[in-house]
Every structure is written in structure tokens, then in C-alpha cells.
Design goal:
Helix content: 25-40%
Shape: globular
Radius of gyration: 27 Å
Largest sheet: 7 strands, mixed
Number of helices: 24
Distance between the termini: 26 Å
Number of strands: 23
Bound molecules: S-adenosylmethionine
Strand order of the largest sheet: 3-4-2-5-9-8-7
Amino acid sequence: MGRFPSTKSVENTPAFAAALDIHGGLDIDAVVARWGASATIVDDICATFGVGGGGAARAKARELGTPRVLLTHKNENVYNAYACEIAAMTRASRSLCVGMFLAMGDARAVRHAAGLRAEIVPLFARDTAEALLADVETLRVTFSSHVNAPETAFFHDCVARHPHRMSSDALGAAFGRIVDSWGAGLSRARGDERQMEDVARFAVIESARGYVFGLVSYAPSSLSLRAVDWARKPQHFSAGTRAEIALACVNVAAAGCEAAFDVDSGSAALIDPCCGSGTMLHAAWTRGFAVAGGDISPGAVAMTKTNVGYFVARAGQSSTMPRAVERDALEPNAFQDAYGSHKRVGAIVSNLPFGRRVAIGGGDGDGRASVGAFASEYAPMLTAFRDAADRHVFISGVPIADDMRAMGYKNVSDVSLCRFGRSFMTIALGESASGALEPATLFSVDEALERAAGKKEKKWQKSKSKVDIAARFANPNALRIAIDVSYEQDSTRARRSVAKQLCECVGVSHRNDNLALTYCAWRGPIAEESREYFFSDRWDCIKKDDRDVEEVFAPEDIVYMSPDADEALDEVDASKVYVVGGIVDLATRGMRTSVTRATNAGLRAVRLPIREFKPEQTHTVLNIDAVVKILAARRSGLSWDETFERELPKRQKKERPKREKRERVVE
Ligand SMILES: C[S@@+](CC[C@H](N)C(=O)[O-])C[C@H]1O[C@@H](n2cnc3c(N)ncnc32)[C@H](O)[C@@H]1O
């Protein structure tokens, strides 16, 4: 998705909102009021996107007021968490497609949603871009003169590709031209526009089934998101919860009664009795909730204090530091003093310990990742937690909703957080709630479990042809390649991208018995990211080593691949180890990162001979997997010409200036 710049809420700038008049028969308030009253927009959107929902649902939507389109990050696995969160916060939200929701009601609360990218008041929704363009053409937008230098800006964003899509460039140009004609000036291309408040921002959102055009009424600034960037915490925990999921859990737990969880309210608190490295505590703290935590492991408690303390200190708010105590959550009366806060527990929000990594009791997990078989493991905790709070939100490794219902938890619902059924969020809203939460999700728990079962079958079939890794590494003719993941990546996106490329390389290695691939410096965030999102525990045809590359291999055997090296590679030979830098960060482009790293360590650095054999190639900075494939192809006996013809990514063959803006990896 494209990035929305920070946008002040239209409602929060009344002077500006008053100055913005959308007509051509329409003004924004009238449009919203009319659509709100007639629910035409709901009909439009529901029809366009094929969202079901009868008269009753629409009547409810009408009652709840202004419809909004909410965009969240589109990673499918967290999408289910966001669906849950938005459903909890608006209680009338409907999912349109991955990462895009139609929400009614209290949009203000939704602005705390973990993955919220933008909030838009929809003006039109149509099933093709052309039809939408015709609608938008009828709009006339003016600004009254008392607002200083009003400007309009236009964004387009794609949450899912429309089957008969208009190209992004054409769509941008066509809508941009119309938007251009409205304002005192279009500032699409200017950097400083992003700093300006008095800008009316319009957006087109493309989805698999249609397009929505609307006024952007809110988009969180990337700066404000970065300020709470949990990825920068001092201590990482392999069993840690993903920050967005933690925030989604906290939001779901507090939705509808936020004030009761305020630090100032003094009457209720949120507890994570298995706090590990403190992710839930941090998430709740960022929302200003009274939160406390505990863990049976003294190491975990120390980690929580360090991690949460780091952010509290940065915010200069030592008085709001959440308590973390060393405690066995299963001990009788564990909740009596509400983990030291002396407040009644409003909600228990916890990523429960389970088989794979951590065990109940604080020990190491047994590595099991089986689905469905071990729900009984959770029984002692679920029993202990049931009466200790009104609401519960748990993350678990197996579905536990049925067990919770059987134990007497009320208004229980669950979603799968992973399309292969490896982690679940289960919500019990308690006796006083009017019903269980019904999020509209991309895949149901049952579907995830079915997929997991299918995967098991595949895995079993695969295990019949198991990779003989010892033989592979003992083969003197094997091509040795190492990937150096010692580099720091400065964004979640960059980490995810490196992990994804490492996963691609595993596929390359699976298909090529002659490749001995080692991931060096296998520690820290990339290893965590790979394990969490790409199941690196199952990568069976590569070696992982936590030592640096020059400790694993004799330095004189190492040939470090870098696009900035002076020397061009000629032969690829089995006596050497070819090291590819695991970097994918725009910020490091042009900084000679890998060549500097190699030179400082006294290693030979070379580049691929792209300049010599493909002089027309403008981009020489390739993805990790592309470099691995090129080395393997050359080693298999192909000439450089043949190798590049076959393996250079096709999109790299011609100049695409837009690509420059994206992250690339240093070979
Ligand atoms: C999945 S981890 C929690 C992760 C945490 N949310 C984070 O982001 O770091 C589960 C935690 O439960 C703790 N634990 C296990 N048994 C416990 C018990 N009986 N009482 C309290 N904590 C326990 C473990 O020590 C572990 O830190």
C-alpha cells in the first residue's frame, strides 16, 4: 500500500472543514447526512463489494451514523487481529477485503487501532475505476477564502488488485487531474505538503472488487507510529508477542469501556500474568491504561522492566511505569492484589505459554507445534484466570474457545491469527456483554486448521524425500554460499523483507542439491522474524550458525559479494565461500555498506560482472535470492551471458524509476 501522510482529522479542524465545500449538487456534510439517512452509501458499498447483510444490518448502520472506510496493514495474518479489533471498537464494522473495512459509529476510538493507516469518508464506490471517474467528475469542490492557502492532494492505494485494473499511473493521473482542478493547487509532488495541515486529501482505494473515492479524514503520522516502535526495545524474546497483535488484544479488551482502564480512573486494571518481555504491558501503557504484569520467570520480569522502562523513560513519564512482579499465575490468590496495583482486574490480556517455545511453569517449550491436540495444557491457567477478571483476551497456540465455553467463560469468540492455524486470539467478553464479538475475517479458525492439516500431509510426504544435509555439506564440489545477517535493519519492513528473501533462498537450496547454504550471524531480530513469520525452524536444507561469517569460514576462503567492489567476479569455484550481505534498506543505498564491512574485516570483495556483460542494466543491486541463483547458475556451467539472461530479474532489465524508491538489497 502507498503511504498516507499524516492528516489532521477533518472534524478537529472546524474552520477548515467549514471552508471545504464539496458540491456539484453536493456538500460533504449533506452527502454524509443524506447517505447516512438513506444508507445509499452502505448499499453502494455492499453491492459493489458483494458484502452481504440484510435490512437489519443496514438499519443498524444507519443508526450508527457516518460510514468510514478504514485501511489497515494488509499482512493477512495480522489482518484477522485488526478485523477483531475494529469489530470490537465499532461493533458494526464490516470487512470488505483484506485490510479494508467499512465501519460505522465511533470512528474516534478506531484511531487507536494498531494497524490503522487511514480513515476515509467515502464519497463514491463503484465496481470499475472508469465508473468511479465519471462520478468524481461530477463533483465540484471549493474552499472559502478564510483558510490560508488551502490545497488539495490526491493519493491512491491498493489493498487488493482489481481483476480489470486501471494501471496505477493512469489512475493517479486521471483522478489527480480532477482533484487538481478543485483546489487552490495540487501539492501531490511536493514534500512540504506533508507538513501542512490545511490540505484536503482525497483518495482512491482499489480493492479486488471495486474502487472507493473519498475524503481522507485521518491518517496517523508515521512519526507517531515510530515513537512507540516496540521493535527498538533493548531486549528481544524469542517467544515474544508481535507488537501489533498485543495492541489489538489490548484494544479489544478495553473497547467500549476505555475510561475504566485509564491510569487515572483508579478503579480497574488490565493484567498480563504471563508478561514475558512485556509486549502487552507496553501496548496497554501506550494507550494510557492502568496495566500491571507478572511472570514466573525472574528473567522475564527483568526483561519486561528493561523493555517497558526504556520507552517510559524516553517519554519522560516515570510515574506511569507499569508494575511487573515475579509471580506464579497459578498460585492460589495470585490475583488478590491485582499484581501489585491494588486495583480490581478489568481484563486479563495474555499470550499464554504453550508447547512450542515456553512451557507453563516458565521452562523451555517442547518444540511441539501440533494443532488441536494439546488444548488440555491450558486448562489450569484458564481455570485460574476465569473469575479473576470480567474480560479475557488470550493468544494461544491451539484453539481454546470450546474449552473456555465449557469452563463457563461467557461470550467467547476466536480468530486464527495465522492462516496455517498456529496461533489464535480468543476473546471472552464476559457475562455483562450483549453478545460475543463477530469479526469478519479473511479465514476462519476451521479453515486455518484445515490448511494446517493439509500442510501436515504435505510435510509427511516431503519427509519421505528428506534432505541429507550432512552429505550436502561434505560434498567437495558443492557451491558454498553464506548469507551474512549481521547487519542491522532499521525498519520492520526491512527485517520482514530480509527474512522473506532468506526463505526464498531456502526454496532455491531445496531445488539444488549442489548448494551448501549457511546463514551466519543467526541471532537477533532477523532470526526472530524468520522464525515467527517464515517458520525457519523447519528450514531443513540450510545450516544456521550464530557466529559471524569470518568465524565460521577461513577468511582466506571468503569472497564477499558487494555491488560497490572494484573487482568483478569471474569463475565461481567450490574452494571458496561466497558471502551475500543480508541487507535490504534504502537508507543504506549508496553507502557502500557491504564493501565497507568486507574491507574492515580484511575480506576479498567482488561484484557480479553485470557492467561487463549487461551494460544496459541500470540496477546492479539485487535481492539476496537473485544473487544466490546467479552464483548457482554460473557454477552449474552456464556462461555469464546465459546466467544473466536466465537469472537477472526481468523487471531489472529496463529502467523503472519508481522502483528506485523501494528497498533493494546490497548483493
Ligand atoms: C508466550 S510468553 C509471553 C510473551 C509475552 N507476551 C511477550 O511478548 O514477551 C509466556 C510467558 O509465560 C510465562 N509463564 C509460564 N508459566 C507461568 C506461570 N505459571 N505463571 C506466570 N508466568 C508463566 C513464561 O515464563 C513466559 O514468559
